[in-house]
Design goal:
Length: 999
């Protein structure tokens, strides 16, 4: 029986040595197997130095119990106490890996593999591992021999004899030896197949890169040729049998478990392609069909087993194609898109624990390094390494990456790989998730030398290194472009001008020489401004490159910076508010309209910040806009100054609307692109409509104030028509209106008419005067008698005209009528006047329906511009805006009298109401809505991109790509965009044929 005092002393001593369950540890130390050495202080010290002393002690007792007899037990104990190298190795492994402890308990003599401490044992290579596997005669004995070799690698790793890069290389060498042994077993089992072919095994991925994990799929590609005189088809069948058998030998589960899966899915066509191909077949595939990621994967290709000479021929044949991959269209975009897709596919619950694939993880380092290799390895053979850390070192030596950045990234990568190794070593399971259990985190932390508070220290170090990777991931690619044109510290290597141009071309810059000049102008010098620019530009360059026109983005940024560079808040805004910098980059590179609006008053860049999330981009309400414009009118000296102020507000708010539209369409790093295309259209339509109405209200007030003081001789109101009335204005839309007046009591009709006409004349003139602000064109052609009729009529004149002369097309046009500015009561009475016309009792007569159809058919045949593709014309083409709007308006004219929901000026609202009323099936309504939204989005995109209105897709390839980017299509997919538009319009036209034309 143990005395209480002694028990307390032992308990404390065990806690001090890192045991978490001292009671269980004390019982194990009292076991008969440890009796000869239980009081030896060396044992306790050695156990306390392991990652998990409890696990190490338990494994040691199990190993002793597994020994065949007392003599073997004594030999093991004597060696443990007397031989420090063995003690450290054995207990280190037992304290870090429950799986290897299980192996030792099952194969009790394998601890002898750790006794050797010869120089060649410290850094074995493929030859030594082949010797270790030489006695394997079947899959089971191969697994035992593999684990024995793995035991020695793990021992060197946990004891610090090898660093993480050497450990990864040894694991790759062991995998090479294992593949060779497995292939030898397969060949021995089918000698007739072996005689038919030359088969080479090409290692890919981490095995090919000499940087394998403890537990990982071993990626391979098989290439085969006929043996002398053999038939090619028969040789390929034989090679496929051998390859399949070799994969099963490694992958299948036996009584000794499995080794690791052999994955051949990186081969041409993936799992859908043949397992084995000839060299010429491989070459033909890569020359014609391979995607960018497949060339990226070939960076790590290395022949490891079978016919090595054939494998070297394979690598030599494909190498020139690998180093031309960066010349492919959208190369950088493809690589970055693939990286984003990897992150997007991570389950949300795992994102924060993903050591490999998550943001700031190992894959970020590997992708960045591989991207740089492919861009610059064309001309610099020193970069052509399959090993990430070797390639990173070569990139730094060549000036392609800053030395400080490379050193930080190297340190972070090594730390993250060490964590990955320790996580996998415990159970020898393939995982890249940081565990949540505190005991697991404690063991990992202690294994990495963190002993004070292992869990807290591990989490802190992990997050710190991941943060470094996140910060440097993009910077690694863009930062050296600035160093190429900036002053560097003595001895610091820089990116050559040629290499900088190469990198810019890979990013999609059409004029790299001009881009370098802009960078030099922005980043050179020792001023605070230049220093901040050097910090901002690496990230901005990446955002510019994500657009269809990086050159324009950089040029526009230089213009804005030149205009605002001396303003203290500008660079501070971009530096301190992440949303502002990204929003600005998106806006400046998305097309001409928003940058043109910004250049006219660069201080509007402040709208892109305004706190986290860029809340300055929120559209303002019509009442808010009217208040601001009317206040400016009151302060102004004369109508001209007042309207100039109103137009200035309009320009600023157009910029705000365009900016938020671009940002929401592109998405940002913290907020995905808006998925609801209809919401984007409605937001722009409402914002531009409200702005136009407020501008007209302010202009009306300014003109009246200058000419008549507070009171005009006639009541005056402006009726919005067309898209203006429907709250569907686009960036390039005119303001369709009707002008209505009614003489004040006691005012002569002629005097009132003169005043009203003068108001209209002055409004149109002031809103179109050439200036820095975009003009607002007023179109009154929808008035009675069109261009031949008077610009302004009294309410009674409108009533008389509509009573006697109104045509059905005018009733249709009045469906969109709504008061937008001026006398509210007069506007209300005008609406009361026209409601019976646009919502006729009992609907339209048959002859009226036929007339509308005739007008529509005539418009389609006469108004479509000559030479344009009807299928891509968003307004007049089949399935375009006109088709949808006329169909909806016909339903409103026919049923608006008894369906209140149809009495709206808005197309989408009316369509939804028609669907709710059962006038159109839900599926057909959805088709029309989708077509209308898409056509409107295209028109908005064309205006944003070109800076001028257009109803069809641009012919210029870069402009077309920018439209595609706005619509959510990745680079290189404009064909998909056009096909999608045609398909959507074609479906809508089918619905229109049925609903509008009657069948």
């Amino acid at each position: 029986m143990t005395a209480p005092g002694r028990r307390s002393s032992t308990f404390t001593r065990l806690l001090r040595h890192g045991f978490t369950d001292p009671s269980a540890a004390d019982r194990l130390l009292e076991s008969p197997e440890l009796a000869p050495i239980k009081n030896d202080p060396v044992l306790l010290e050695a156990l306390g130095a392991t990652a998990d002393p409890d696990l190490a002690l338990h494994g040691l007792v199990r190993l002793l119990e597994a020994q065949p007899g007392p003599t073997a037990q004594r030999e093991l104990l004597d060696t443990v106490i007397a031989a420090k190298p063995l003690r450290d190795r054995l207990l280190g492994v037992l304290g870090a890996s429950a799986a290897l402890a299980d192996h030792l308990a099952k194969h009790s003599g394998d601890w002898q593999a750790l006794v050797m401490y010869e120089p060649r044992d410290l850094h074995p290579e493929v030859e030594e591992f082949e010797q270790g596997l030489a006695e394997a005669t079947d899959p089971v004995t191969l697994r035992v021999a593999y684990r024995r070799c793995l035991l020695s690698i793990a021992a060197r790793d946990v004891c610090g004899t090898t660093d993480v890069a050497q450990t990864a290389a040894e694991l790759a060498d062991l995998a090479t030896a294992t593949l060779r042994a497995a292939l030898a077993l397969a060949r021995a089992a089918a000698p007739e197949d072996a005689a038919q072919c030359r088969l080479s095994v090409i290692a890919m991925g981490k095995c090919g890169g000499h940087e394998l994990n403890y537990v990982s799929d071993v990626d391979v590609i098989f290439v085969a040729e006929t043996a002398d005189g053999a038939d090619e088809a028969k040789a390929l069948r034989s090679a496929t049998k051998l390859a399949s058998h070799m994969m099963r030998i490694c992958s299948e589960t036996t009584v000794e478990g499995s080794i690791w899966p052999v994955d051949a899915n990186l081969r041409p066509e993936g799992r859908n392609g043949p397992l084995v191909r000839t060299l010429s077949s491989h070459l033909a595939y890569y020359q014609r069909w391979a995607k960018t990621w497949e060339f990226q994967a070939l960076l790590k290709a290395r022949p490891v087993a079978g016919d090595i000479e054939l494998g070297e021929e394979y690598v030599a044949a494909l190498e020139p194609l690998v180093w031309k991959a960066a010349e492919r269209e959208n190369f950088v975009a493809d690589v970055q898109k693939m990286r984003r897709r990897v992150v997007e596919n991570i389950p949300v619950a795992e994102l924060d624990r993903q050591l490999k694939l998550g943001p700031g993880g190992l894959r970020d380092v590997e992708f960045a390094v591989q991207l740089l290799q492919l861009v610059h390895g064309r001309d610099d053979a020193s970069l052509r390494s399959g090993t990430t850390l070797d390639a990173l070192q070569a990139l730094a030596a060549g000036g392609y990456v800053g030395r400080a950045d490379a050193a930080q990234l190297d340190d972070a990568y090594r730390y993250l790989r060490s964590m990955e190794h320790r996580i996998q070593l415990y159970r020898l399971r393939r995982t890249h998730l940081v565990p949540e259990d505190e005991a697991d985190l404690r063991r990992i932390g202690r294994s990495l030398g963190l002993r004070v508070d292992p869990v807290a220290e591990l989490n802190r170090e992990w997050k710190r290194h991941a943060s470094v990777v996140r910060r440097l991931h993009e910077k690694l690619f863009y930062r050296p472009l600035l160093d190429a044109v900036a002053q560097l510290a003595p001895g610091e290597a820089r990116l050559s001008a040629g290499a900088a141009r190469e990198r810019l071309v890979a990013l999609g810059y059409a004029d790299p020489a001009a881009a370098l000049r802009h960078l030099e102008a922005l980043a050179s010098g020792v001023t605070r401004k230049a220093a901040i620019q050097r910090t901002l530009l690496p990230v901005l360059l990446g955002w510019f490159a994500d657009s269809a026109d990086p050159d324009a983005g950089l040029l526009n940024f230089r213009k804005v910076s030149d205009a605002l560079g001396k303003t203290p808040w500008y660079l501070r805004l971009l530096r301190d508010e992440g949303a502002a910098a990204e929003n600005l980059a998106r806006v400046l590179s998305a097309g001409r309209l928003a940058p043109d609006l910004l250049m006219r008053a660069p201080e509007a860049v402040a709208l892109l910040g305004d706190g986290d999330g860029g809340s300055g981009l929120e559209p303002r309400s019509r009442s808010h806009l009217e208040q601001e414009i009317l206040a400016a009118v009151r302060r102004a000296d004369g109508a001209a100054q007042a309207v100039t102020a109103a137009r200035g507000v309009r320009r600023r708010e157009l910029f705000r609307t365009a900016a938020v539209d671009v940002v929401d369409s592109y998405g940002t790093e913290t907020k995905p692109a808006e998925a609801d295309q209809g919401a984007l259209v409605d937001r722009v339509g409402a914002a531009v409509t409200d702005l136009t109405a407020a501008t007209l209200a302010g202009t009306l007030r300014a003109v009246v104030r200058e000419g008549w003081g507070d009171t005009l001789p006639t009541r005056f109101t402006i009726i919005g028509m067309g898209r203006f009335g429907g709250q569907e204005l686009g960036y390039g839309s005119d303001a369709d209106v009707l002008f209505v007046h009614e003489p004040q009591d006691g005012v002569d009709d002629h005097e009132a008419a003169v005043a009203a006409n003068r108001v209209v004349e002055q409004m149109r003139r002031l809103l179109q005067i050439p200036s820095a602000d975009p003009p607002l064109l007023i179109d009154a052609d929808l008035r009675p008698e069109g261009k031949s009729g008077p610009l302004v009529r009294t309410l009674n004149s409108y009533a008389a005209y509509y009573r006697r002369w109104s045509l059905v097309w005018e009733s249709q046009a009045l469906l969109r009528a709504v008061p937008v500015a001026g006398d509210d009561d007069l506007g209300r009475r005008f609406i009361e006047l026209i409601d019976p016309l646009r919502y006729p009792a009992e609907g339209l007569a048959d002859d009226a329906v036929r007339e509308i159809r005739r007008l529509k058919a005539r418009m389609e045949s006469e108004r479509l511009p000559r030479g344009s593709d009807p299928k891509l014309h968003t307004k007049l083409g089949p399935g375009g805006l006109s088709d949808v709007e006329w169909t909806v308006q016909l339903l409103q004219l026919q049923h608006g009298w008894n369906e209140p929901g149809l009495r709206t000026t808005r197309t989408r609202e009316a369509l939804a109401a028609a669907c709710s009323a059962g006038l159109i099936p839900e599926e057909e309504a959805a088709i029309l809505d989708e077509a209308w939204v898409l056509a409107t989005r295209v028109r908005n995109a064309v205006m944003l991109v070109r800076g001028r209105a257009g109803d069809t897709f641009p012919s210029d390839s870069r402009e077309l790509a920018a439209v595609g980017r706005y619509l959510g299509y990745e680079p290189g997919h404009v064909g998909d965009m056009l096909d999608a538009y045609r398909r959507t319009a074609r479906r809508a036209r089918g619905v229109v044929e049925e609903l509008f034309y009657g069948g």
